[in-house]
Amino acid sequence: MSGKVVLTYFNGRGKMESIRWLLAVAGVEFEEVNMTKHEEYVKLLSDGALMFEQVPLVEIDGMKLVQTKAILNYIAGKYNLYGNDLKERVMIDMYSEGVRDLMEMIMMLPFISPDAKKTKLEDIERKATSRYIPVFEKVLHVGTSVQVHYLVGYQLSCADVQLLEITLMLEEKFPTILSKFPVVKAFQGRMKSLPAIQKFLQPGSKRKPQPDDLYVKTVYEVFNFKH
């Protein structure tokens, strides 16, 4: 296998989007294989490429990696985005997993009925503003006037990247959601000014748009689900 990093998924966000974000921040070029047919998924299974019969699949350093958390941790560790010691890493993991909980609620929105979507959106907004964002508002604010630049230690980590990602996802659904969280909003602004992130946020980058009906249809077709 060549030195190329190859991502196999759908042409959409889903669980792969955080992996795209992290690779982009690390400055790693990658190629994508976008599944559109059930036969493509069946071939991956028959080739033994999917350990638990699930995507995302990331080919990197001669390995075929599955399971989102494992992939993110490997990339973070390889590119110095995973803290300096065990204590920093466990904090990074806690913050990242909290963010993932919230992300996964938003990821499921395209797959629920229109009738249920309004209630689910209300639930997401309530949990975001009462349970999740306040944690980060507090962590990023030290004393009366000092704001820290990163969630853990004194350097950028995968937790910072995922926090930025979720703030942008939330603002797509609730444009004013950060108005009561000025410290998180300031953090978002600092993160967006980093050159690698500026590049990833530009039109034409490998960042995916919000999922549409075609994305949902493709997921159902690839997995041969009925809906």
From TrEMBL:
Please give the organism.
Oncorhynchus kisutch
Under PANTHER family, the record lists:
GLUTATHIONE S-TRANSFERASE, GLUTATHIONE TRANSFERASE
Family membership, please give it: Belongs to the GST superfamily. Alpha family.
Protein name, please?
Answer: glutathione transferase
The encoding gene is LOC109899872
- Does this entry carry the keyword Ligase? no
Q: Which InterPro entries match?
A: Glutathione-S-Trfase_C-like (IPR010987), Glutathione-S-Trfase_C_sf (IPR036282), Glutathione_S-Trfase (IPR040079), Glutathione_S-Trfase_N (IPR004045), GST_alpha (IPR003080), GST_C (IPR004046), GST_superfamily (IPR050213), Thioredoxin-like_sf (IPR036249)
Key words, A-Z = Transferase
Residues of the GST C-terminal domain: 85-212
A single GO BP: glutathione metabolic process
For this protein, what is the EC number? Answer: 2.5.1.18
One of the entry's Gene Ontology molecular-function terms is: glutathione transferase activity
In terms of superkingdom, the source organism counts as Eukaryota
Question: Which Pfam family is an annotated match for this chain, by its short name?
Answer: GST_N
Q: Which residues form the GST N-terminal domain?
A: 3-83
Under the heading SUPFAM superfamilies, the entry gives: GST C-terminal domain-like (SSF47616), Thioredoxin-like (SSF52833)
